[in-house]
Design brief:
The protein is an all-alpha fold. Helices cover about 50% and strands about 0% of the residues. It has a domain at about 10-55. The protein has 3 helices and no strands. The radius of gyration is 13 Å and the shape is elongated. The protein starts with a helix and ends in a 20-residue tail after the last helix.
Length: about 70
Amino acid sequence: MPKDNDQKSEFCQNFACELQTCLDKHTYNPDKCEKVLNKLKQCCLDHGAQSPVICSGFPTSKSSSSK
């Protein structure tokens, strides 16, 4: 089952790719890709430890503000 390990290494990669595709399609207008960006942010909140590279610029913990 090595595929599961590969997917877990960067859990949020699909969302990052989806965001890149959206931005490319809409000439890098972030307003057009807000829903996709929010999905990536939520993935990073929920699974940031499994996506350290993908989520490096996003909060990766719902409780980080109470630290």
